[in-house]
Amino acid sequence: MSDATGAPTLRGAAVGRRIGIGLMYGLWKPRVLGAWRVPAAGPVILAVNHSHNIDGPMLMGTAPRPVHFLIKKEAFVGPLDPFLHGIGQIEVDRTTVDRTAIGHALGVLADGGALGIFPEGTRGEGDFASLRAGLAYFAVRGGAPIVPVAVLGSTERRGRLIRGLPPLRSRVDVVFGDAFDASAGDGRRTRKALDEATLRIQGKLTAHLESAKRLTGR
Fold first, then answer.
1. What homologous superfamily is domain 10-216 in, according to CATH?
2. Which GO MF term does the entry hold, naming one (predicted)?
3. What SS3 state is found at 171?
4. Which of 95, 145, 153, 167 is least buried, going by the fewest C-beta atoms within 10 A?
């Protein structure tokens, strides 16, 4: 749910986490590895690869803390609009500099919450090959460590009812990596500093994804 200003609340995200747990464990078989690597308190950003439509809900249901995701405004249609706002998710307009969404995301971090981001922007190969600078901005500006997360689902088409979803009751691996600081430690927030941070982040996320694939045999 949102407060009087429209900002997402921890209570709403906690409700979303309970829904995610029921939905994900009811329809698939999540195997969660390394969840202990997520800091138990304080601001944190969970950076998730995005190759399945369930990546967001899967993380909401398997992360050890309630998560506020930045979600494209196109998803907020019909009954999903009040529902997504109600479970503490953040609507973002990707066609412009959405200052409201930026303010809400920074507010989550300022309050010591967990912010979920798909740094590739849209669902694709899920290989972190193309990162947007937004992740670096939130990490540096919000003073939050980044925890890389790899969601690895079945690539089989057999048993798949909906395109973009793993087959029902198939195993989905969620692998959390070690938290890291994206900044250079010099306090710079210039465009050059953010570009450099983005390159550092991409290296860390790609390395974690490859490690997760070796670990799970995906």
1. Glycerol-3-phosphate (1)-acyltransferase (3.40.1130.10)
2. 1-acylglycerol-3-phosphate O-acyltransferase activity
3. strand
4. 95
What is the C-alpha separation between 157 and 89, in angstroms, rounded? 30
SS3 content of the chain, % helix, strand, coil (to 5): 40, 20, 45
Give me 61's structure tokens: 């249901």
Tokens of 68: 């506020």
Query: How does DSSP assign 32-80, residue by residue?
Result: EE-GGGS-SSS-EEEEE---STTHHHHHHHHSSS-EEEEEEGGG--TTH
pLDDT for the residue numbered 49: 87
128 token code pair: 């972190």
* Mode of pairing for the β-strands spanning 146-152 and 171-176: antiparallel
Low-confidence ranges of the chain (pLDDT < 70): 1-5, 121-132, 154-164, 184-188
Alpha carbon 150 to chain centroid, angstroms: 10
Q: The pTM is what?
A: 0.89
Q: How far does CA 166 lie from the centroid of its chain?
A: 18
